[in-house]
Amino acid sequence: MTPESVMTIGRTALEITILVASPVLLVTLAVGLAVSVFQAATQINDPSLSFIPKVLAVLVTFALAGPWMLTVMTDYMRRVLTGLPGIIG
């Protein structure tokens, strides 16, 4: 196993992680920003007001993007595991 192959596997793993996590993080960011603007405009500072919409948005995002996320992760693991004999020997 060469250092280049280890770096390639690690870089690809980080890319897949960012790719899979980005929909949830972007939706959470957008909902958090919208709730913050609403709280600033109405001067309502209730912590549950920012928590509940974020949780609902994350659940909806997982429901919509979950199959795609699972497919991306499964394809990556399949590539890693099928290429493992070539990497080791």
Automatic annotation (TrEMBL):
<dbReference type="Pfam" id="PF01313">
    <property type="entry name" value="Bac_export_3"/>
</dbReference>
<keyword id="KW-1133">Transmembrane helix</keyword>
<keyword id="KW-0969">Cilium</keyword>
<feature type="transmembrane region" description="Helical">
    <location>
        <begin position="51"/>
        <end position="70"/>
    </location>
</feature>
<comment type="function">
    <text>Role in flagellar biosynthesis.</text>
</comment>
<dbReference type="GO" id="GO:0009306">
    <property type="term" value="P:protein secretion"/>
</dbReference>
<feature type="transmembrane region" description="Helical">
    <location>
        <begin position="12"/>
        <end position="39"/>
    </location>
</feature>
<dbReference type="GO" id="GO:0005886">
    <property type="term" value="C:plasma membrane"/>
</dbReference>
<keyword id="KW-0966">Cell projection</keyword>
<keyword id="KW-0812">Transmembrane</keyword>
<keyword id="KW-0472">Membrane</keyword>
<dbReference type="InterPro" id="IPR002191">
    <property type="entry name" value="Bac_export_3"/>
</dbReference>
<protein>
    <recommendedName>
        <fullName>Flagellar biosynthetic protein FliQ</fullName>
    </recommendedName>
</protein>
<keyword id="KW-0975">Bacterial flagellum</keyword>
<dbReference type="GO" id="GO:0044780">
    <property type="term" value="P:bacterial-type flagellum assembly"/>
</dbReference>
<dbReference type="GO" id="GO:0009425">
    <property type="term" value="C:bacterial-type flagellum basal body"/>
</dbReference>
<comment type="similarity">
    <text>Belongs to the FliQ/MopD/SpaQ family.</text>
</comment>
<keyword id="KW-1003">Cell membrane</keyword>
<dbReference type="InterPro" id="IPR006305">
    <property type="entry name" value="FliQ"/>
</dbReference>
<keyword id="KW-0282">Flagellum</keyword>
